[in-house]
């Protein structure tokens, strides 16, 4: 790996991990897709703390997956690359499925 590849790998991975930690701590939610386009009423139906914890964890693991993906790519190691890609894919799928399966934890329906 040359210097540029090392810097790129670390910058993208650390950026994702730092962003994930911020989301976990309920900061940086303005950067979540769709959150800013929701009305106040719709945002009120979500348990923001639980959603932020879930998405924060998923983004941190995506950062780890990005590191493995880039490291494997730059070192021509398909196994490491595929593991990183798999981690990212699993985190994306879990971030979609978990709130739907356990809606009582992530949504606050008013009666």
How is this fold's topology laid out?
Elements: H1 3-24, H2 40-44, H3 48-74, H4 78-101, H5 103-106
Please, could you describe this protein's structure?
- This is DUF3784 domain-containing protein.
- Keywords: Membrane, Transmembrane, Transmembrane helix.
- It holds the Pfam family DUF3784.
- The model has no long low-confidence stretch (mean pLDDT 90).
- The protein contains 5 helices and no strands.
- The protein starts with a helix and ends in a 5-residue tail after the last helix.
- Helix 1 runs antiparallel to helix 3 and helix 3 runs antiparallel to helix 4.
- 74% of the residues lie in helices and 0% in strands.
- The chain has 111 residues and is mostly helical.
Low-confidence blocks of residues: none
Shape: elongated
Report on the biggest sheet.
none
Mean pLDDT: 90
Helix tally equals 5
- Cα gyration radius (Å): 16 Å
| Structure summary, number of beta strands | 0
Order of secondary-structure elements:
HHHHH
Q: Roughly what percent helix?
A: over 70%
| End-to-end gap | 58 Å
Transmembrane segments: 6-24, 50-72, 78-98
Protein name: DUF3784 domain-containing protein
Keywords: Membrane, Transmembrane, Transmembrane helix
